[in-house]
Amino acid sequence: MSANSTPFSVKILTINTHKGFTAFNRRFILPELRDAVRTVGADIVCLQEVLGAHEVHPLHVENWPDTSHYEFLADTMWSDYAYGRNAVYPEGHHGNAVLSRYPIEHFENHDVSIGDSEKRGLLYCRIAPPQLATPIHVICVHLGLGEKQRQAQIVMLADFVNALPQGEPVLVAGDFNDWRQKANHPLKTQAGLEEIFTRARGRPARTFPVSLPLLRLDRIYVKNANASKPTKLALRGWRHLSDHAPLSAEIHL
Fold it and tell me: Does residue 20 belong to any structural domain of this protein?
């Protein structure tokens, strides 16, 4: 509830940035992606596959930023940001990031990798808008490609959500890779998370591949909050900026 009991809402956006390149890594488009993200006017942005560092690309890629990709995207519009490093390789690393117009009081990255499979994480941020008496708990998610991996990661996500303070708003957004649509039921029954497109339209949005979306991979879940205007931004101006369609919504607290 807001500190002065007046209605308060935030706009959330989630997008898989594909490390700042077009499909098949043909062209570096991070500056164009930043311009597009700005037009949405989101208060909180959840990003997946964000490059934290790379030693080779700056040597031959034109317009490569001097800062990390998440700092470059945050620029002057989002005063706070957090990054969770997941995949590490000789040239650098990438992971999830959260950009916020409001103070991020605390953040931590939870490794949910299973065995020797690709590295995955849950980036948790406790965000404190001054208008609210309680914080917003935001979790940026990128789950694995294998079904058994995802099922184990969904259990870990549910356990983490259940450990948060009761009654406080929780937002979970990202790339669930859940092409078989197995996540909604356990997340709702085990952790009280509701997927906003499913609540509004009966099923998650089709987001992948962005040129002809068939698979319902990307999600926004809420707990102790309401949502309106769930929107898939697979507009002409976005289609070359990621292989996933971005999702946005107004979250009412």
Answer: yes
CATH number of the domain enclosing 129: 3.60.10.10
Instruction: Quote the number of domains for the chain.
Output: 1
CA 171 to CA 80: how far, in whole Å? 17
Q: Is the pTM of this model over 0.85?
A: yes
Q: What residues does 11 pair with on adjacent strands? A: 250
Q: What is the pLDDT of residues 139-183, one digit of tens each?
A: 999 999 999 999 999 999 999 999 999 999 999 999 999 999 999
Q: How far is residue 222 from each of residues 167, 170, 251, measured CA to CA in Å?
A: 12, 6, 8
CA distances from 172 to 59, 161, 219, 234 (A): 36, 9, 8, 21
Distance CA 224, CA 169 (A): 5
Instruction: With respect to residue 227, please indicate whether it lies within any of the assigned structural domains.
Output: yes
Provide the 10 A C-beta neighbour count for residue 110: 14
